[in-house]
Write a structure and sequence with these properties.
This protein is α+β, with helices and mostly antiparallel strands. The chain has one domain (8-123): GTP cyclohydrolase I, C-terminal domain/NADPH-dependent 7-cyano-7-deazaguanine reductase, N-terminal domain (GTP Cyclohydrolase I, domain 2). Helix content is 31%, strand content 33%. Strands 1-2-3-4 form a four-stranded antiparallel beta sheet, covered by helices on one side. Helix 3 (58-71) crosses helix 4. The longest helix has 15 residues, at 77-91. The radius of gyration is 16 Å and the shape is elongated. The mean pLDDT is 92.
């Protein structure tokens, strides 16, 4: 007998520009970011139904990230990652656990071709 253990949905390499950074100067100029998401949850029903209601619509996940990026100016990429995770858990009732990786590409003050990355994981509290 074969048992389905887990389903993970990943959205990787979402690149965007935003006005996020600790200094006022960073929040005044465009900076490049890469977002990676991994979403775990109860998606087994989707295997048989073929319905987006039974899974996570990754186009909505990407749209959520882009909306947060457009309307906010975060001092810390940790805060950006946290808002992404909270928003996705709110919008995606079947999601149980979300890992968000936010990478700031070529941030000021670091060596050329160096990136800064934060990874944050949030999980639903057994509701």
């Amino acid at each position: 007998m074969v048992i389905l253990k887990e389903i993970k949905i990943s959205l990787t390499g979402l690149e965007l520009t935003g006005f996020h950074g600790y200094t006022e100067q960073e929040r005044q100029q465009k900076n490049r970011f890469r977002i990676d998401l991994q979403i775990e949850g109860d998606f087994a029903t989707a295997l048989a139904s073929g319905s987006l209601e039974d899974t996570v619509d990754y186009s909505i996940a990407a749209e959520t990230v882009c909306e947060l990026n457009a309307i906010n100016r975060y001092k810390l990429i940790e805060s950006f990652a946290n808002d992404i995770a909270d928003s996705l858990l709110t919008r995606s009732p079947r999601a149980r656990r979300i890992a968000v990786r936010v990478t700031k590409i070529d941030p000021p003050g670091l060596a050329a071709s160096c990136n800064a990355t934060v990874e944050l994981v949030k999980e639903r509290n057994g509701d």
